Amino acid sequence: MASSGPTWELILACFSVLLLISQTEAATTLDSNSSASINTLFKSRHSAGDTVNLSLYYESLCPYCASFIVNQLVKVFQSDLISVVNLRLIPWGNTIIASNGSWICQHGPDECHLDIVEACAINALPNPETHFKFIRCIEGLRLKNLNNKWESCFGSLGLSAGPIRKCIDSGLAIKLEERFAYETAHLSPPHKFVPWVLVNNLPLQDDYQNFVAYICKIIKGNQLPQVCKSLVVWSNSASAVTYNPVSTMNSRNTTTVSDPPFQQAGKL
Ligand SMILES: *[C@@H]1O[C@H](CO)[C@@H](O)[C@H](O)[C@H]1NC(C)=O
Ligand SMILES: *[C@@H]1O[C@H](CO)[C@@H](O)[C@H](O)[C@H]1NC(C)=O
Ligand SMILES: *[C@@H]1O[C@H](CO)[C@@H](O)[C@H](O)[C@H]1NC(C)=O
Fold first, then answer.
1. Per-residue confidence (pLDDT) for residue 50, from 0 to 100
2. Residues 6+ away with beta carbon under 8 Å from 264
3. Is the peptide bond between 225 and the residue preceding it cis, with omega within 30 degrees of 0?
């Protein structure tokens, strides 16, 4: 009698694990021929009626942001989600502009520099799959504390350094970051921490790791990505609330970005 409860729990737990395994395998299968499937999806994307804006406000050296990009956001490209998602990356985060105009990045000057590199990547490589790959490479190095080796990502991904270098060395880099600073400062409601994820205009707050479920809720039936169909089964079996690590702003005085921002960048 007393054992019947735990037995059922065990069976249910095994069932959930099996569902998770089958999900992982589905994702791996898609990923193994990702360039072909992604190209097809990009073509269909423009004929599809509606897309969902998925926006990530982050800063390049925040470990939780790096982990989110490397391990979670990549699901957009490992599944058919990209067919309905307009992915936007906004590398600025908790950076503040001092009264003398210089930028103070939460993780120091190296972060200011890599935010610029990533802003330039978004600009110089407008295909989301391409700039995401590059940024994910840098964030992967960050997780290993090798972010000073970010230039190795050009070689490892077979990308030419020219366009990004040109952007970094020109005034364009500063302009791009000023735009991101302005956009971040005008979030309504304001961001409380990074990574700060929005699905359309909805901030996911500390539930950001469940972004796929929020996207699937918005998408209309006939365009439902495959990943959303399997998610229905999944969310019924696993109701575990995940702990979402975040990087809060320091308690220092926050100088808001003026409207519009004309500040010069400080030391990079
Ligand atoms: C990937 O897809 C393309 C086009 O559908 C196909 O020609 C190619 O053989 C596939 N490659 C692999 C490794 O499955
Ligand atoms: C600007 O202000 C910041 C913070 O107050 C300070 O660390 C920095 O040295 C100043 N830079 C210049 C060029 O005065
Ligand atoms: C999505 O973002 C674009 C700009 O990139 C904007 O024009 C559009 O209104 C946004 N859509 C929604 C539903 O928020």
1. 76
2. 101, 102, 174
3. no
The token duo for 59 is 């800063």
Q: Which ligand is nearest to the CA of 263?
A: 2
Looking at all shown ligands, the one closest to residue 34's CA atom is: 1
The residue ranges of the chain whose pLDDT is under 70 are: 1-49, 221, 232-246, 249-268
The response to whether residue 47 sits with its C-beta less than 6 Å from ligand 1 reads no
How far is the C-alpha of 2 from the C-alpha of 214, rounded, in Å? 40
Q: Which of 58, 177, 203, 63 is nearest to 120 (CA)?
A: 177
The DSSP bridge pattern shows strands 196-199 and 52-58 to be antiparallel
- What is the per-residue pLDDT for 188? 96
Nearest to 166 by CA among 130, 125, 111, 131: 125
pLDDT at 99: 96
Tell me if 102 CB under 6 Å of ligand 2. Answer: yes
The total number of residues shown for the chain amounts to 268
As a whole number of Å, the end-to-end CA separation of the chain is 68
Name residues whose C-beta falls within 8 Å of residue 27's C-beta, 6 or more positions apart in sequence: 75, 78, 79, 227
Is the Cβ atom of 202 under 6 angstroms away from ligand 2? no
Q: Residue 89 forms beta bridges with which residues?
A: 56
262 torsion bin: left (phi>0), alpha (psi -120 to 50), beta (else): alpha
Say how many Å lie between the CA of residue 34 and the centre of ligand 1. Answer: 9
Q: Cα 150 vs. chain centroid, distance in angstroms?
A: 18
Q: Which residues contact 180 (CB under 8 A, 6 or more apart)?
A: 90, 91, 92, 115, 119
Tokens at 171, concatenated: 């005034």
